[in-house]
Design goal:
408 residues; alpha+beta; Cytochrome p450; 6-stranded mixed sheet; 3-stranded mixed sheet; 11% strand; globular
């Protein structure tokens, strides 16, 4: 008979501990994983630390992403933020989720991402021109924020001049997954959700009037076919892509540059051989996942490793420990862009039905960025203090000041 999780003697984690950043965060999570594959999350379910267990609960059919439920626990049952989440692709499961995802998936295949590479290089060159003669910059402000917002504007068919607004809205709206931000910044989050919803409808009208070679125009064409997409579904899918396609790449790019500052030999190797960029991206994704914790709620009783969990249990799957699990890869605590990690793909983009839709696009953007910047920023190093955002939700950086030598 399985043992109920509630009866186990488990290490316990305070929710406030999950807001640690940097090495303090990794040290805490590593210590927990050394003690058990599971820990009790104070007042809110269980933290699943083992790689196999984390992957299992990410994929399990009886585990759903409790988007609106988490807002309801904080007393939010209506309003722009609640409405936005209730129609989000993340909120859907089963046939409804498979139907919408299948329709939008062709725009996010590896081949589709490859078609965007010339645009990626154009935007990187433009951003580089603005800082190249300075020899220093804040990576977050100069590259990681503007670059993915420009690219998602390209993909969706939004005017390029709207990219700064898309970046601002995306970063605000993604705060919906951080309970601390929901409690302290609810008014700002609600305002961003309302503004973005209005913008999405305006963009829909623009692309309906002037179709282009972009995803939104493709979605509109599907709507016209009848029993494919409703007008509301077009807006909701566009919204999910526009928001989700910005802050994930933004955060991973910033953390990647930070890791290279801390590992200058890896940066030199990449500068000497930009063909290493794909392997470098995988190592960055593994070593510092920008979705370190993935939330699930059980819709039915579940069991893993002789431990049972009742329906309604909150499960937090930790990619941050799963990606560095001892035995899954060699020397897991070492950042090494030359290491063979093929046996254990990172769980940074999740697993199962809700695997990140834009993973191929994000990988391509990161490959192009690292490959472009490494030869142009020799001697890259930190030029001040790194400012971390919270690991709850999307784990990014607020500021990353760097400097480099003149490449000439």
């Amino acid at each position: 008979m399985p043992t109920p999780a509630a009866e186990l003697d488990l290490p316990e984690v305070a929710q406030t501990d999950l807001t640690r950043t940097g090495e303090s965060y990794h040290s805490m999570m590593r210590e927990l994983r050394e003690r058990s594959w599971i820990a009790r999350l104070e007042g809110a379910g269980y933290l699943v630390l083992g790689r196999d267990a984390a992957a299992h609960f990410m994929r399990a059919k009886e585990a759903t992403f409790p988007a609106t439920q988490m807002l309801e626990l904080q007393g939010i049952t209506e309003g722009p933020l609640y409405d936005y989440l209730s129609r989000n692709l993340l909120e859907l499961d089963g046939d409804a989720h498979r139907r919408l995802r299948k329709l939008v998936q062709p725009a996010f295949t590896p081949a589709a991402a490859d078609r965007q590479r010339p645009a990626m290089r154009t935007h990187l060159a433009s951003l580089w021109d603005a800082v190249s003669r300075e020899g220093k910059c804040d990576i977050v402000a100069s590259f990681s924020r503007p670059y993915p917002s420009r690219m998602i504007a390209e993909v969706m068919g939004a005017p390029l001049e709207d990219a700064p607004r898309l970046e601002r809205w995306a970063n605000m709206i993604q705060g919906q997954f951080d309970p601390i931000r929901v409690a302290s910044e609810r008014e700002a989050l609600e305002s961003a959700a309302a503004e973005f919803h209005e913008y999405a409808w305006e963009l829909l009208a623009l692309r309906r009037e002037a179709p282009g070679d972009d995803l939104l125009s493709e979605l509109i064409a599907m709507e016209a076919e009848g029993d494919r997409l409703s007008e509301q579904e077009v807006v909701d899918l566009a919204s999910a892509v526009l928001v989700g396609g910005v802050d994930t790449t933004q955060a991973q790019l910033a953390h990647g540059i930070r890791l290279f500052c801390e590992n200058p030999d890896a940066w030199r190797k990449l500068a000497d051989d930009p063909a290493l960029a794909p392997a470098a991206v995988e190592e960055v994704l593994r070593f510092e996942p920008i979705a370190p914790l993935t939330l699930r709620m059980l819709t039915a009783d579940a069991e893993w490793e002789g431990v049972s969990f009742p329906a309604g249990t909150i499960i937090v799957a930790a990619a941050v420990t799963a990606n560095r699990e001892e035995g899954a890869v060699s020397e897991p605590e070492r950042f090494d862009i030359l290491a063979d990690r093929a046996r254990a793909k990172p769980l940074t983009f999740g697993a199962g039905p809700h695997f990140c839709l834009g993973a191929n696009l994000a990988r391509a953007e990161l490959v192009e960025a690292f490959g472009y910047l490494a030869p142009r920023m020799p001697g890259l190093e930190l030029d001040g203090e790194v400012e971390y955002a919270s690991p709850l939700g999307i784990y990014g950086l607020e500021r990353l000041p760097v400097r480099w030598r003149d490449a000439g």
